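Appendix B. One record, verbatim.
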Amino acid sequence: MTFRWRWGRILRVAGVAVLALVAGLAAYVQIQQRILRWRAERLLADIRQIQMGKSTWADAQRLMTRWGTWGGYEGSCTAKRCDYQIVMEDAFRPMPIYFVPRGEMRKEARMCCQWLRRPYYLLGGRFAIVDARIEVKDGIIWTKSYEVEINTTSHIPFWNEDDYALLGAARGLTNHRHSNSGSRREYVVWRPAGCEGCESINVEYSPFADPGIVNSLLDFHLGCLASFRVCREPSELMPTAWLVYNHRGETDSSGEREPTVEEEIEDAGRDSEYAAIAGITGTHVTTEDGKRLKWATLRLIQSLKNGVPAGLEVHGWQPLGRAEEAVRKSGVAGGLKKGDRLIALFEIRPDRPEPDSIWNSYGLVPYTDRNLAAVKRGIARDKLADVP
């Protein structure tokens, strides 16, 4: 009898200890999630107060002073030029944080401790990251951005493996990609195609977008960071952006005229990250799916934007047929051949691996005085560009 009593008492004490441990862990998880939400809400409020093209270096310094614990930059940060990033995460997110240079996307990192996900979800935890940034040039803040990523769960989180990332991003860009909307307006709401393992919605806007519209699109439901009810759809994370996205058919049929070829070339000058004058040193033709594609080897002669290295050769970078289409639209007679000059527009530095991506179909523009003037006008609109 004494042995049974002692064993029963041990079991009761052990049960109470386990319950206390679980309750303590649940309380800790909820407290740190609510702290993250509280900080994220205040950071969002600070980002919304910034006026692109008007807020000054002093405003940037106040933001950096307040969020210095979570902030950082690469290289130097002065009133002349500064790209400042603020990153916060939940206490258990198994992903390293690092600075992401302008024009590049955050790289995926291998996540460890996968066995923690299920119990963490059941305790109300959300692997999450909040990312904000500002970019300064010549004493003025020209862009502001705010992004949230939450690893969300299936409807039965402990047994089902269908977890995915819920992403919402509002990015201020000087190289605003009009091609996502087919429109020349200064903002666009879109969803990336082929987002494997994620559900996302993106907002992009230029420094010249209406401040009221920008702040209305910076509508994040940050309760998703801490609520027991799991947010699973982009509409729950960015409700206003989702409404705009679903009504884009109505807004995009508002009678806006089609841009002229010259306007498209000007937009390409602004939207491309790098630009240079190039000469064709050789051409060749390939056949893919029954279609003949004409390719070129280019030698970069003179940088127009962001310090493209002169003298560099780029082999087979872009089907020349696109440039020849631009030739026809521009009214220039004849096809392109060895010795001709072009204006080359790049998304990434052409001396880096795989420089084969461009913002739009005007990646190669025929070299004429008129086209060069249009590209330079576009570059002048990119307030963070470095030009010779």
